[in-house]
Design goal:
The protein is of the alpha+beta class and 197 residues long. 29% of the residues lie in helices and 33% in strands. The protein has five helices and eight strands, in the order βββαβαββββααα. A six-stranded antiparallel barrel has the order 1-2-3-8-7-4. Strands 5-6 form a two-stranded antiparallel sheet. Bound molecules: flavin mononucleotide.
């Protein structure tokens, strides 16, 4: 990636899990928030960025209506857990497209939509990025990753034995490696899907 590029704002090749803010349809005013995986792919010298959107979510509706996508790079387990199910209230925001505690925000414009069998591919154009917190140094925490993993399972939860086993394993990791915020986020996820083993 070139200088002053996505990499400067914390993105890498692969799927970058962020909290995506869009404007338009939302349960909390007109600012919508949802965890999203933004794919960064090197194609020769070019960099392609896109997101796969499953189902008719508010995010998809807003992007179709030409909202910009404000991708917040953050490690806030509660924000990931809550925004997977409901929109974040104003107390989570620093301004109308930045979450408190985000390290950076990258602004994307939707440039095209392609409907596939199970999802829609939205191609994105990187417009600009902002560093919110320049002291973004932190160690890898398995508990945080387990929360993100559990939130992904929870948004597609069917109640299968396989999912329950995986959630139990993730709970062990959260309890062992996470802090209070990871534990609260995990509890929130389990209550959102009404799962208690
Ligand atoms: C870590 C994580 C990543 C996610 N990535 C995507 C994604 O790339 N595309 C998608 O459609 N849904 C994704 N989801 C699920 C959406 O966040 C979820 O469906 C959300 O409820 C959509 O909210 P909205 O209706 O406000 O847009 C992800 C969930 C989590 C927890």
């Amino acid at each position: 990636m070139s200088e002053n590029s996505l990499e400067d704002f914390g993105f890498r090749e692969g799927i970058n899990e962020v909290i995506g803010i869009t404007k338009g349809v939302s349960d909390a005013g007109n600012v919508n928030s949802a965890p999203l995986g933004i794919v960064v792919k090197k194609e020769g010298k070019a960099i392609r960025t896109f997101v796969r959107l499953f189902g008719e979510t508010h995010t998809l509706k807003n992007l179709r209506a030409n909202s910009k996508l404000y991708a917040n790079v953050c490690y806030n387990p509660l924000a990931f857990a809550i925004s997977a199910f409901e929109d974040l209230e104003s107390e989570y925001f620093l301004n109308d497209f930045t979450l408190k505690g985000s390290y950076s925000v990258c602004v994307f414009e939707p440039i095209s939509f392609e409907k596939r069998e199970n999802f829609t591919i939205c191609e994105l154009k990187f417009v600009e990025g902002f560093i919110v917190n320049p002291k973004a140094v932190r160690a890898f925490n398995r508990g945080f990753c387990a929360v993100v993993e559990a939130a992904i399972i929870a948004t597609r939860y069917t109640g299968s034995e396989k999912e329950i086993e995986r959630l139990k394993e993730l709970e062990r990791i959260v309890n062992r490696c996470g802090g209070m915020e990871e534990k609260l986020a995990y509890e929130y996820i389990m209550s959102a899907i009404k799962c208690n083993f």
